[in-house]
Structure formats: structure tokens, C-alpha cells
Design a protein that fits this description.
Largest sheet: 7 strands, mixed
Radius of gyration: 22 Å
Strand content: 15-25%
Oligomer: single chain
CATH topology of one domain: FAD/NAD(P)-binding domain
């Protein structure tokens, strides 16, 4: 067993942990980062498969993600805009394919009116909610006691309007059925992006990508921290802490430090034995966070054939297996790439199929949007994260109904010299890379005594 002494030990080499370590190094502190995986990046990952660079994890940059944008510039990286020229495709409940250029597809007038009314109301309420301290809203307890689905259905009897609005949070963000999380959780998600209208504006949310791949952010952070300070394949299982500091023990190494930062999703913290144990309510709070489920599919084609047909590649079909698709073509790829997402119950159903049947069903859904040419990509790949031991789902965790107001500030509270950092406990940038950076910087300040 190797023994190391340092100022701060960071558990987890995702974006939050690496950001914390980077800021601490800039402040003159010594750090050691322990990571269970064989790589850095956490939920930001790229694979090189058959010569195709596949961004498996988080990849987009929104204009309001100020900390991510600043860090990209600081690390000397560049971005490029998502392709969005042309018409969009909507598939309705009956399976009809509707081509449109408007912000909303040409649905029935009454349904459109309900969609706009619900969106406006959610936007107004979400702008009243502080995403960092949502429990301070005067109606927080009321909003946290009702599911998002129940609130929508109590406010409209138009099923098509509910089916259109709910997935902007359930399928597109929290990746859980709308009855599995509270209205307050939905409002926090919206508030963290500037409001429900901004959350639903895909030209904002999916604005840009990092040239060469988002994985370059954690890779460059690791370079700044120093690879000699990062221990991969080191699964931390115990943290002893007291007035004199912490001792963190992982695979073949024990690190003694003054402070520790646990940069893991809340659902993974319970894998660690704390001595003494975490305060009861803190431990209970961590248990009520759970991951969503989403399959990210990328299909590479010899050419972006949809562009020649005047299509942007952007689609939406709340009743489809693949509920949303976008043009994901990188500047250095001569062909065209589509990326699609299957969330919550649709993801559950797809994961019950064998690989061949799942591919056939998913590409069949692509073909409903783009025609027969979508059935035969040059390269096809899926990622779901659910079977990865150190992730167990995507995109992030969210609390159960009633959990936000029940535990309040415990979500980010430190325990003696132990601090927590993760996008899942962020305010602004909640469950996004921007939120991971914000929480990493916050934890670094706490660990430095500021």
C-alpha cells in the first residue's frame, strides 16, 4: 500500500473533480486526484471506433453556460456551430410526418394554444425559482408535492399538448417519466437554463460543440493538473475524517490530506465507507437521488443526404422510439452524422431487446423522419451508460418527489473537511458540464478555506 500526503485529495476525475483540482493548483495547493475509471472525464467521453470519433457523453455548449465558455477559452479550445439550416420534422401521435419551418409544428389550433399557454406559465414560474435554493420559493412545498405529469394534466385536458411539453424536461433533460419527479424539480431544471422557454429553445441549448470533441475539456484540465497527480484505476472505498483532516483509501493507495472533495454523483457516494459515518440526514438525502435512462445513438452516413432535401436534421416525435434527432456532423467529417435520443420508458423497452433487434427498431424510427436512406449508415453506435459501474445512467440524477424541500441545503453541505462537487447538485447548469465546472470551482474555494 502506497502512502501519499497532500493538501487536498479529490475523489473523481470528471469535469467537476478536475476543475476543482485545477483551481486548487492555481491557488498553490498540492492535490491528488483518485479516479476509479481507466480514464478522466466522467460523463464526458469520446471513443474512436472504426475511424469514427464518437462523442459518447455531453457535447453541446449553450450561450448561457458562462463558466463552460470561459473554461473552453482558458484551455485554448475552439467551438463550432451546430448545423440547423432547413426544415424540421415532427411526427404526431398518429405517426403522420409533418415538415415545418415554424418554431412549433402545425398542430391543431387548440393544441398549439395549450402548448403556448403551458409553456408561458412554466416559464413565468421557473423565473421565480432560484435554482441554487429552490426551497426558498413561497410555493416550494406545494410544487414539490405534485409530479410534473400531474400538474400538466391538472392544467389542461389536451393530451397532445401534454405529450409535446412534458418531454422537454422528462425525455430531453431528466430522462425519467414525467410522473417520476416533481413540478419543482422540473422548474429547477428550467430555471437552471434561464427559464422554460430557454430550456425548450434548441437553438440555445444545442448551440455549439467543441472542435475535436468535448472530451478535450477534461483532457486539457488533466494536463493542467498534471498526470502525475491523477491516479486512474483507483476505486475509493473508505474515507476516514476528523479535526486533523482526512485519509482516503483506494486501490493500493492511501492519501492523507487536510481536505477532501467528493466529485461523484450523489447516487455513487454510498459506495464509500465514511468513518465516522456521514450524518444520517445527509446520507438519506444522497439516497433519494437517482439516475435517468437514455440511449444516445449516432449514425454516420457517406453524405448528409437530408441537407440536399432541405432538412436541418432536427426532429421531434414525442411518441416515437427516437424522440429527437439532430445533425451531428463534425467539420472534419466528409459525410453526415445524425444523433438521436431514446429516453425513460422507451429506453427501458429498447434495452430489453437484443442488439440486432434494437438497432433495427431505432433505425426504423430514424427512417420515419428521414426515409429509407437512414436505414443503412456507414457506421452505427449506441451508448446508454446504465451498465457502466461508475455511472449507472444518464444524463444525471434528480431527487424524488418531495426530496428538494425535505432536505434543502443538505444537497451541497460539507461534512467537516469533506466537500461535494457534481453537476447533479448545481444550481445554474444543473446536470450539465457548466454546472460541473461551477461546483468544482465552489468546492475548490471551500477546500482552500475561502
Amino acid at each position: 500500500m502506497e502512502h501519499i500526503e497532500t493538501d487536498v485529495v479529490v475523489i473523481g476525475a470528471g469535469v467537476a473533480g478536475l476543475t476543482a483540482a485545477h483551481r486548487l493548483r492555481q491557488a498553490g495547493r498540492e492535490v491528488v486526484v483518485l479516479e476509479a475509471r481507466d480514464r478522466v472525464g466522467g460523463r464526458v467521453k469520446s471513443d474512436l471506433s472504426n475511424g469514427f470519433l464518437v462523442e459518447v457523453g455531453g457535447q453541446w455548449v449553450a450561450p448561457d453556460q458562462e463558466r463552460l465558455i470561459a473554461l473552453i477559452a482558458e484551455l485554448g479550445l475552439e467551438t463550432f456551430a451546430r448545423y440547423r439550416d432547413g426544415d424540421e420534422i415532427y411526427i404526431d401521435r398518429a405517426g403522420a410526418r409533418i415538415r415545418h419551418t415554424t418554431d412549433l409544428p402545425p398542430l391543431a389550433a387548440g393544441t398549439l394554444a395549450e402548448i403556448e399557454r403551458l409553456s408561458d406559465e412554466l416559464d413565468a414560474i421557473s423565473k421565480e425559482v432560484d435554482p441554487f435554493e429552490p426551497w426558498t420559493h413561497p410555493r416550494a412545498t406545494e410544487f414539490d408535492a405534485v409530479s410534473f405529469d400531474a400538474w400538466l394534466r391538472a392544467n389542461t385536458d389536451d393530451d397532445d399538448a401534454v405529450a409535446f411539453v412534458a418531454p422537454f424536461v422528462s425525455g430531453g433533460m431528466l430522462t425519467k417519466p414525467a410522473e417520476a419527479f416533481s413540478l419543482l424539480a422540473a422548474l429547477v431544471m428550467a430555471a437552471s437554463a434561464g427559464g422554460f422557454t430557454d430550456l425548450a429553445d434548441l437553438d440555445l441549448v444545442l448551440n455549439e460543440r467543441v472542435l475535436g470533441g468535448m472530451h478535450n475539456v477534461p483532457f486539457r484540465l488533466a494536463e493542467e493538473v498534471g498526470h502525475d497527480r491523477i491516479r486512474l484505476n483507483t476505486d475509493v472505498r473508505s474515507v476516514a475524517h476528523g479535526p486533523d483532516g482526512v485519509t482516503v483509501t483506494g486501490s493500493e493507495v492511501a492519501v492523507r490530506a487536510q481536505e477532501a472533495i467528493v466529485a461523484l454523483g450523489p447516487h455513487l457516494v454510498s459506495r464509500i465507507d465514511f468513518e465516522p459515518a456521514l450524518p444520517g440526514r445527509k446520507a438519506q438525502m444522497l439516497q433519494q437521488f437517482s439516475m435517468g435512462s437514455v440511449i444516445k445513438v449516432q449514425a454516420f452516413y457517406d453524405e448528409p443526404f437530408w441537407r440536399a432535401e432541405g432538412l436541418s436534421g432536427s426532429t421531434y416525435g414525442p411518441h416515437e422510439i427516437v424522440h429527437e434527432v439532430y445533425d451531428n456532423t463534425a467539420p472534419d467529417y466528409a459525410g453526415g452524422t445524425l444523433v438521436g435520443f431514446i429516453s425513460d420508458r422507451q429506453a427501458d423497452a429498447m434495452l430489453e431487446l437484443d442488439a440486432d433487434a434494437r438497432r433495427e427498431a431505432i433505425l426504423g424510427s430514424f427512417a420515419k423522419y428521414f426515409g429509407e436512406r437512414a436505414l443503412e449508415p456507414a457506421f452505427y453506435t449506441e451508448s446508454d451508460w446504465i451498465d457502466e459501474e461508475f455511472t449507472r445512467g444518464a444524463y444525471g440524477t434528480s431527487p424524488g418527489i418531495g426530496g428538494i424541500t425535505r432536505y434543502e441545503e443538505l444537497v451541497r453541505s460539507s461534512v467537516g473537511p469533506i466537500h461535494f462537487a457534481c453537476s447533479d447538485i448545481a444550481g445554474l447548469g444543473y446536470t450539465h458540464i457548466d454546472g460541473a465546472i461551477r461546483m468544482g470551482e465552489r468546492a475548490a474555494l471551500l477546500a482552500a478555506g475561502q
